[in-house]
Amino acid sequence: MSSRADRRPALRLSLTARLAGALALIFALGGIAVGVAALAYGRSAAQQSYDRLLIGAATQIADALSVRGGEVVVDLPVSAFELLSLAPDDRIVYAIHDPAGRLLTGYDTLRPPPSQATFFNATFRGEPVRVAHVRRPFAERSFSGVVEVLVGQTTRARARLANQITRNALIAAGIAGLVMSGLAVFAVRSALQPLRRIERDIAGRPPHDLTPVTVAVPREIASLVAALNRFVARLDRQVGVMRNLIADASHQLRTPIAAVRAQAELAADETDPERLRAAVARIHRRSVTLGRLADQLLSHALIIHRADSAALARIDLRTVAIRTLEQTDHDLLGDGIRPHLDLPEDPVWAEGDPLSLVEASKNLVLNALRHGQPPVTLTVRVAAGTACIAVRDAGPGMPAAQWADAGARFARSRGVSADSAGLGLAIVQAVATAHKGRLAFRRTAGGTFEAAIDLPAADRGGA
Amino acid sequence: MSLRALLGLALLLLAPEASAQADPEATRGFGATDAPRTLLVRGTTDIALFGPVLGAFVAASPEVRVEYEQWSSNGLYAAGEAACTADAADADLLISSAVDQLVKLVNDGCARPYRSARTDRLPAGASWRDEIFGITREPAVLVYNRDLVPASQAPRSRFDLIDLLRPADSPYAGRVATYDIEASGLGYLFAFVDSRQATTFGSLIEAFGRSGAVATCCSAEIIDGVIAGRFLVAYNVLGSYALARAETAPNLAVVAPDDYTLVLSRAAMLPAGARNPDDAGLLLDFLLSDAGRRELAAARLIVDLDEPDETLLTLPSGSAVLRQIPLSPVLLVGLDRQKRARFLELWRGTFTTE
């Protein structure tokens, strides 16, 4: 217990930090993805718009071609160049070639590409240019063939537009990211709100309040609250056991201790050896009773504690019965009455804690020996899903009216006897309940009285 | 004739620009001869006009000596293109009124970019790619001889000019001059831009052709011809030169045409092969500065067209008719080989060159 308290839980990263980290990662990856996409989109959008400009200009020039006297005449339209100057800072390169590949006008450095591509990239005196390629076929009497019109432009305006589009897209994405971050912070806060409510509920409790937490929480942390409540209930039971132990001890032990002390005082003043011996014998008897009582109280507390905390294992109830008799023998060495053992051939499986069950059976046996008529028989059996460890005696048994509350502490109407504090059946009851079973009394067909612990039987090969 | 001479002749015919390449019309140095740094500037502007501007520059930056070479626009372009093609060293700054040629040099990757607070303040159309910059503001004007042209006939627009030339026995026949657009890059630019502005251009050159108008070289020659009375009217003369001459020649009337007035911004660019680009940038910044603009205005290279306090210039009634020639790749169209050939063919069919 102390070792667990000393081991402080290692402080892990806060939930907010973890969520922030995850969100930052998502935003970073998303930002990179958006950036790459924006760049690609910006480039293709700029490329498309300025390609249209180029093809428009080239088409205008091609339309202005004419054939006069067997020669192609190029009347360069000013409007084509005005169109091109919409890209305000870009140099223009153009060339018009006749079907034989001779330059009609323009720049001789610009040649048609071997492919038929409408657009291609080239360089023009040290600067990259994008070139549109338009073909104008002629079929005149004096001239036929395809005149190739090439119009190119440097790429400043494209680059600028692409950058602009990319920058705007990134700004938009950045704003969206900020808004999403804000929403994420809000969502995290509101998601953690139930935890704060639970914290406030627990922190605000008086020291002895061990009732379940009833704060309304979302489904995701309901299981946490349920586990917390189970823990609180166990704590509550254990605190109850402790409280009972203290109450029982003060209630049960005070009188016998006072009696022992009184008799010891009397014995101290006694001078007659005969009466002194009798007084000492009385003190001894009382001490034995007192010891048994203390034993039972501690046992009760121990069993109830174990019932809550010990892990249940698959056990054979026959083993429990044998161990019970071994330990009972010890206690009743002087009386010479031996209980009988009636065990089946096959194992009787149940889920349970052997120590508690042995203790409970021992109590049943002791009760039978003390209050019943011999012969006393300890039997184990299984029937209809119920495994049962039972003690029979030939006596009339407890009146049926007392069966229902026989398991309560100090239920006996007779009160505390010299031999027993009346805790025996309470222990049995607690153990049976902890094993999801019950304490049962019945009269058998043979006229004997039976006190039994009924437990759910475990599968033959299960668990 | 020897083979070599034939070859030389052929080369000369094939590459007339190459022959113009090596000959600046005039040169002059500004600043101390022992200045630590030298800047070579090539321009089409007359030294007489541009000299004071450069003088002011070297006064402000005495550590720089400026060598100024005055070139014809075609020669300047050919030299720039040749240097660019050969990746050779070039002048440090080119300043030309034939801005289309400089635009083409920029388009062909022959310029180096330059940026400063002053170039960033230039309006759209006054610079391109941070490689070519408009530094002046000069209208294309009509000039006429006040003594020989009666006030009632004084032309105020292109329509007036067409009307003057219409009668078969017009006294203006053979006495109207304009640039020879084959020889003058600026003349070609004005004519080409004119051809895009209005259908007036067709009627105008038709009238020129019918009346035997004279196409000749060079602003100075044309203006002198008008002052001397050899020509009565000259069309598309650069306003800056005309106004400078009008100061001393009271019979020279300068008119910014009423239908529309082309406004030229003489352009400067740093060639890719500039040896001293830093000082070229320094000069460019000076030309764009308030002090530089004051000097350019004093040289009439910046003509105030918005505040008509000029007594020498007859301005159009509204500034809406001012048409700035923007520095843009659209100007490349006029320099297209076929386009230029066809345009010149049209021109030649019309004009008798003097």
TrEMBL record, chain B:
Pfam families: SBP_bac_1
Signal peptide interval: 1-20
One GO CC annotation: outer membrane-bounded periplasmic space
This protein's UniProt keywords: Signal
Record's keyword annotation contains Signal: yes
InterPro entries cross-referenced by the UniProt entry: SBP
Protein name in UniProt: Extracellular solute-binding protein
